[in-house]
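Q: Could you fold this chain for me?
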Amino acid sequence: MEALANLAEGFIGLFQQGGDTFMGLVTGIVPLLIVLMTFVNAIIAMIGPERIDKVGEWAARDGLLFYPIRYIILPFLSVFFLTNPMAYTMGRFLPEKFKPAFYDSAVSFVHPPLGVFPHINPGEIFVWSGIAAGITELGLGLGDLAVRYLLVGLVVIFIRGIVTERITAVMWASKSK
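A: Sure. Below is the predicted structure, expressed as structure tokens.
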């Protein structure tokens, strides 16, 4: 009988812990995300959506000079201003040959900036929170980690964009033969 009581206590304890975690989010990260999302939407309204759209048209130009624009600046701006999953819609301004690479860059960048810009992907903030809890428990600061994670993410999306663009070109060339 005692084992059954212990099992019941453990079972309800699991939900109590979940409730405590939930309350921590409601009083901590949720208000921050709401204010940050409101701020970003206000910036978009002040800048004007049509100006943000022009950046996508500019990135669609051919040439090596436009690689960083297409695979670093455009994904960063898309993810920052439109957040996940709307960020992928900026690819509509690119020719078909660049769309797979842009998508690869943008989808690869929705996690790295979470430590600096949590509004980008609030559904995945739990990933960053788990990493942050471990780093905090070690007595280390989160600011350096967040910035490094962001910078490495920018390098990775640039490489992925170029590689995916090349793979797409090879696949389309072999398909047309």
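A (continued): The mean pLDDT is 85.
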